[in-house]
DNA sequence: GTGAAAGCGCTAACAT
DNA sequence: ATGTTAGCGCTTTCAC
């Protein structure tokens, strides 16, 4: 006669199998595996041994159905747009993604990637559908209002601008101060006509530019103009080139919203035989690894530390546990290099 | 009296609730929602409307438990190591990650990030635990043998080296040919002492170097040496600097396993006042976006196309459907720029 | 300390 | 075209 209900050809063992092998009931197996002390130590050891031997893996779906709190976090960012030539996410975001994923993994959380949606409902649907117990947004992506609403209904943490009125917990560099530092720098270097490169619809960029304006000031001897571009190198390169070759109105400083954009600007500037930094000073933001290696090494804003990833995760855990989590602005410094 | 079994405070609606609201049985709701044509069109419409109205989201755990084939793919790569200063993954991998995630998302697959493990058992455990129906490895990561074994037990696709003896489906650039192209190039440019920069333990790197040796040849007038470094910019920079300043033995060409390493090499070379490419020619691999922007623009190897991401996903779908999927070597070309 | 019974939310098989 | 019944694999009562 064949075996009663054991390991199917699929190879996956269930608790029923283990129970029979151990000569105990299923609940006992369950208890033993979870180390509940209502199980005789000897029994427990035996069951653990059998489980290991047969490569038993608990069925996560069944556990979830039974109500075990999910250990699963969604990471939301804009990978959708990283098609050929489009506005791919900044390299900085990928670095951060790696850090966050790592921090979650060592806490034994599952990490799921979710694309940006365009409504609170869709976010909520998406997140509950996959059974995530929380979400980390990498950048507001201009969805501040949506995030406000979503935060009331789902545990989220946002990397990005720390806005005073935000109802959600945000972690990000002190964008305003970063902008201020750049303002002081360019003012100190006697620059009188500045181009702000980046799209202020992005909350972080807006704050950076506001900080800049605040410290740089505008008067008869100081002008500021904005060139709103996305985060794509190509787009920025073309936009800057257009700007400076079409209207030869003098421009002696550029504050780019990211290092990538700064690199694009430098290329454009050199294209028309202007010298960086003598003719045009350029300052970026983020201090991504390439910035130091870039030729010329980029002057840029660096965050206080690289613990952003684990900080985001810690905050999310707090919220998950019902604790209020406060937003954090990471301190920034200006790294003066060659541009 | 209070409502019988409806929407709990948690806010999540189940099919039971929907069924009562619609005045039908639960299976009917299930059928209607899945658009089985055994349901009266009118009923179906009504149920869909109710579902939408109440924001019903099917419980994925229950569905999975009931045996619905999982639509979930794990992406395995080395984000663990992206801690401060360590061997972070190459920028190229992140690009690819974005593409793959996108391709999976539009197919309505969930995307889960998994760290590298160090045994077949752990991989299998990890993957079945999260209930993935397949996995995409971003780079062999020196685990060719492990992948051989794993492939027999789980649907996987590997981005990386296409090895003749591989039992798994691999998609990758034609590393050997890429190396050959570099060999021809440096030979044509009369370079006589070449440094291969990169760790040949990585399968792709090994193939690139083998290709190089094959076309460059070694004789009394041509020497090759290898400097095995990881994928970290800093590490490569220091290693190259050490190599060229400690032993001033002439070196007039460098073939770097990635563009990032090439950039590091260039920085080191310039550090000791050698000129690129006059004194030392440098060729990279991958043609990442920054390579064009780099100063000097990098000579490098580019893959035939950027559809690698969707190709990986297509192949995985084939295997999932029980179809054999053949490996693919993407054609490569040498992009000659300034180095 | 352990077992028997019930049920999480859904779908497949069988009725009708 | 719809309802009834059963059960996925696990955990949580409640007995003993």
Automatic annotation (TrEMBL), chains A, B:
<keyword id="KW-0804">Transcription</keyword>
<dbReference type="Pfam" id="PF00356">
    <property type="entry name" value="LacI"/>
</dbReference>
<feature type="domain" description="HTH lacI-type">
    <location>
        <begin position="13"/>
        <end position="67"/>
    </location>
</feature>
<keyword id="KW-0238">DNA-binding</keyword>
<dbReference type="InterPro" id="IPR028082">
    <property type="entry name" value="Peripla_BP_I"/>
</dbReference>
<dbReference type="InterPro" id="IPR046335">
    <property type="entry name" value="LacI/GalR-like_sensor"/>
</dbReference>
<keyword id="KW-0805">Transcription regulation</keyword>
<dbReference type="Pfam" id="PF13377">
    <property type="entry name" value="Peripla_BP_3"/>
</dbReference>
<protein>
    <submittedName>
        <fullName>LacI family DNA-binding transcriptional regulator</fullName>
    </submittedName>
</protein>
<dbReference type="InterPro" id="IPR010982">
    <property type="entry name" value="Lambda_DNA-bd_dom_sf"/>
</dbReference>
<dbReference type="GO" id="GO:0003677">
    <property type="term" value="F:DNA binding"/>
</dbReference>
<dbReference type="InterPro" id="IPR000843">
    <property type="entry name" value="HTH_LacI"/>
</dbReference>
